[in-house]
Amino acid sequence: MSAGGGTKAVLAALAANLGIAVAKFIAFLFTRSSSMLAESIHSLADSGNQALLLLGQRQSTKPADETHPFGFGRSRYIAGFLVGIVLFTVGGLFSVYEGIEKLRHPHHLESGLIAIIVLAVAIVLESFSFRTAIKESRHIKGDATWWRFIRDERSPELPVVLLEDLAALVGLVFALCGVGLTLLLDDPIWDAAGTLAIGVLLLVVAVVVAIESYSMLVGEAAAAPVVAAIREALASAPSVTAVVHMRTLHLGPDELLVAAKIGVDEGLTTAQVAAAIDEAESRLRAVTSITCRIYLEPDIPSAVAVAEAG
According to the model, what pLDDT value does residue 216 have? Predict the structure, then answer.
């Protein structure tokens, strides 16, 4: 995926969350609702997350140098991992702490109607952000399920924004239920329960984001269909007799390292081997839109058989 769609979704989420965070915090000052405070911190954390994602995108475009010969593409994965940490420490843990405190020391709401109005407006704005993320993701997702898209997509921005926006909408519903039940039943324990539910929700999302980003930081291969297409392209090249073994590794969302040992016809001259490798590389690049760094090692069938037997 190019960064363009992800950037549009991130910017939409950032604009929505900054405005929502200010509105929620003002509502908290009037109502003293713990659910509103938790949602204010949630939106503030989300704004910081989007800023991290944008910074990661910017860092990833830096040209390669002697110290970083494969470039800075993984900066986007580092940003995604930090987003998980921010969600965990700033959003989730604070909300859980605040919810437990309000369960122990209930506090009656003031001007609850203001909280309900702000939450309703926030749901509309978050829905706009979520709709943008879905629209940008749909043409990349194809026929895959949304969960499979989140698990398999190698660009971190869209899955992260999708999860954040979904968590934000569900969190707003929790807050709305907490405030609404508190006003209806005149019992502040429901506001505390809403706050605690928001915290647990954020922790779950944070763990998912962190696990997926960590996996890419450690190093993941290309998706199975891409690996199969690359292997087939190499095997179809003239003078190539076999793909002995192959490894792929994402250097970044839009850059792939491909290393393979290929069998070539016995008796080829050095020039012919070089030509066979060039053709194999050309066919490989034709089957994937991802920028590839390709390293191919030729071997003759007899040497391959000896190596496999050994």
Answer: 84
Cβ pair 53, 156 in contact under 8 A: yes
What are the pLDDT digits (tens) for 173-213?
Answer: 998 898 889 888 888 889 889 889 988 988 888 888 888 88
Radius of gyration of the chain measured on its C-alpha atoms: 25
The CATH number given to whatever domain includes residue 129 is 1.20.1510.10
Residue with tokens 């010969």: 69
Question: Which range of residues forms the domain containing residue 291?
Answer: 224-309
Q: Across the chain, where does the E strand assignment appear?
A: 240-252, 255-264, 291-299
Model pTM score: 0.73
Final residue in a domain of this structure, among 218, 235, 265: 218
pLDDT, tens digit, 9 for 90 and up, residues 167-178: 888 988 998 898
**Is residue 173 a contact partner of residue 138, using CB atoms and an 8 Å limit?**
no
Place of tokens 């039940």: 181
* Structural domain count, the chain: 2
Those residues of the chain that have pLDDT short of 70 are 1-6, 88, 301-310
Provide the pairing of β-strand 255-264 with 240-252: antiparallel
Amino acid at 166: L
